[in-house]
Write a structure and sequence with these properties.
The complex is a heterodimer.
Chain A: E1 9-13, E2 17-21, E3 26-30, H1 37-49, E4 57-61, E5 68-73, H2 79-89, E6 94-99, E7 113-118, H3 131-139, E8 142-147, H4 154-160, E9 165-166, H5 180-196, H6 198-201, E10 212-213, H7 214-221, E11 235-240, E12 245-250, E13 264-269, H8 278-286, H9 291-297, H10 310-328, E14 345-349, H11 352-355, H12 358-371, E15 380-383, H13 388-394, H14 397-400
Chain B: E1 7-12, H1 19-31, E2 35-38, H2 45-55, E3 59-64, H3 68-73, H4 76-81, E4 90-95, H5 104-114, E5 118-121, H6 125-141
Parallel strand pairs in B: 1-2, 1-3, 3-4, 4-5
The chains are: A alpha/beta, B alpha/beta.
Chain lengths: 401, 142
């Protein structure tokens, strides 16, 4: 018999941790990668979860790695950039892009792509695509394919590509971005992907609500972040996880040609994490010319990379903060550059808040601003230690508004 | 100009925010029957070319007032060469194209070398647009 607890039970299944939040408690457990997710969850938090009816359990997950995406577009500044932005904001982590005019020069991905997105051209333009696209696709392995470009080209593509989904153009006649249709498609595809994966599918035994991707949940909570934290705009939110590092940032921080209704956009560094992506994080660190100075500043040597202690994890997290800030600065290679000197707050969420203190985080941001930007600017550090942001997003639109 | 208006991508290049002149160019082009894609001020060179690809524009009209064009103009030929399918794009630039003063003929010759078909240094807007129409007519006749 279920004695129903008051309120909701919110569960986040990450690549590294499982977090369970109720009105009375927050639990966080390291995942057992040899066990099924549901079994693992119930063995650790079964007593809590069993107090809730299925309709009161809300789950989000980034544990299945998300969808792999290949975007083919006709220009870097418009169609490719817009589609990448929409994909990130839909919770997708793995994105590769192809500039259509050079498609013959790209090699085929070795793994099957979950979704191919083709974009380009405003609706009054036509004949943007030809045989080179169809030839490339003929050799590519993919599960889904969607076209969201010029409506005049849609019939041609539909004739040549089996099972092509055609959506309204993401570039309107003023060259502005139109997000909603492609975003809805990708979010739904993510749900279907989750439902198709045995591990995640089992979680529907304890919830009757849709399972969303965690970054999607975090992003939709951001307009309401002020209800939980004293955050001064503009801000960035860093979610340094086990496999990836997510950044959500105020649109005020980019000089951009994208005019969207979103106040916040998302960017992912897919190989920057402190557990599953540990080795690639260390490789990225080795490649950065300032890292040895940073290690010295933290009073450790590069031998720390060979250790598997809490201290080593903390150092890796500090490195991840530095590398992410570097990548989004004007010296980095990310597809957007943020105006870092305009940031007033940096909010940290995820496992990092359990490992690092405010002082340890501030030491890194201070080092970054002084060393890289030659500035004494000091954004306020805010730690989301109780997963309030994720809770805010997971509770849905009703409680957010 | 026929049923289908000719498409023009326009905007202000570089760190230049002369928004009023930019708006006047937009309105004047529309009044002459062009379909205008105005990228606004502070526009990077690559954005102009990318917009031409996305829209299928026949004309790229860059404006500049504070001398920024001089620096950006040098990169036009190199950048345009990276785009496949923009060979027929009419390249036009106008405004105040140098810092300080200079001989107009020298300035025009220099910008043509940069890859512009039409160069209007300190030229009245309507005169510049007349030049564009003449150029289009000549090209379609040839």
């Amino acid at each position: 018999m279920v004695i129903e607890a008051k309120g909701h039970c919110l569960i986040d299944v990450g690549s590294t941790y499982i977090k369970v939040s109720t009105a009375n408690s927050i639990e966080q457990h390291f995942r057992d990668f040899n066990a099924d997710i549901l079994d693992d969850l119930l063995s650790k938090c079964g007593a809590t979860v069993s107090q809730f009816e299925k309709h009161n359990v809300y789950i989000c997950s980034s544990a299945n790695g998300g969808l792999s995406t290949l975007i083919i577009g006709v220009s870097n500044t418009f169609s490719l950039k817009y589609a990448t932005n929409i994909a990130f904001n839909s919770g997708i982590n793995i994105i590769d892009t192809i500039l259509y005019q050079n498609i013959d020069e790209y090699s085929l991905p070795s793994e099957r792509i979950d979704v191919v997105i083709i974009v380009g051209g405003i609706n009054s333009h036509s004949a943007l695509f030809s045989d080179s696209l169809f030839n490339y696709l003929a050799d590519l392995e993919y599960s889904n394919i969607v076209f969201a470009g010029s409506e005049q080209d849609a019939p041609l593509l539909k004739n040549h590509i089996d099972d092509l989904v055609v959506l309204p153009n993401i570039v309107d006649d003023r060259l502005h971005i139109v997000e909603q249709h492609l975003k809805d498609y990708l979010v739904n595809l993510y749900q279907q992907d989750i439902e198709g994966k045995e591990d995640i599918k089992n979680l529907y035994q304890i919830t009757s609500n849709q399972i969303y991707s965690t970054p999607y949940i975090v992003n939709r909570a951001l307009p309401f972040i002020g209800s939980k934290f004293a955050v001064a705009n503009p801000f960035i939110l860093l979610d340094i996880g086990g496999a990836t590092t997510d950044i959500h940032y105020s649109k005020d921080l980019v000089e951009d040609n994208m005019v969207t209704e979103n106040e916040y956009d998302r960017l992912v560094f897919k190989r920057l994490g402190v557990y599953r992506s540990r080795q690639s994080l260390i490789l990225a660190a080795h490649a950065n010319e300032f890292v040895y100075e940073l290690l010295s500043y933290l009073k450790v040597t590069e031998n720390i990379f060979n250790e598997h202690s809490d201290k080593a994890t903390r150092i890796l997290m500090q490195l991840a903060i530095f590398l992410v800030l570097y990548k989004i600065s004007r010296y980095g290679e990310s597809y957007v550059k943020l105006k870092l000197l305009a940031i007033n707050s940096i909010v940290f969420t995820g496992g990092i808040t359990k490992m690092l203190s405010s002082d340890e985080i501030e030491a890194i941001t201070l080092f970054f601003y002084r060393k890289i930007l030659n500035s004494d600017h000091r954004p306020v550090t805010i730690l989301d230690t109780d997963y309030d942001i994720w809770t805010l997003g997971a509770r849905g639109d009703d409680s957010c508004q | 100009m026929g049923a289908k208006p000719m498409k023009v991508v326009t905007g202000v290049v570089g760190n230049d925010i002369h928004v009023v002149a930019n708006r006047l160019i937009d309105l004047s082009l529309q009044a002459r029957g062009y379909e205008v894609f105005n990228l606004g001020v502070n526009t990077h060179l690559a954005e102009f070319f990318d917009a031409a690809v996305e829209t299928g524009a026949e004309v790229l009209m860059i404006s500049s007032l504070n001398g920024e064009a001089e620096g950006w103009g040098r990169e036009v030929k190199l950048l345009k060469a990276k785009y496949k399918g923009l060979d027929e794009l009419i390249m036009m630039i106008g405004g105040n194209l140098v810092v300080g003063s200079g001989n107009t003929e020298d300035i025009i010759a220099r910008y043509k070398k940069y890859g512009f078909d039409l160069v209007c240094h300190q030229t009245d807007l309507n005169t510049g647009l007349d030049l564009l129409e003449e150029f289009i007519q000549k090209r379609s006749a040839s």
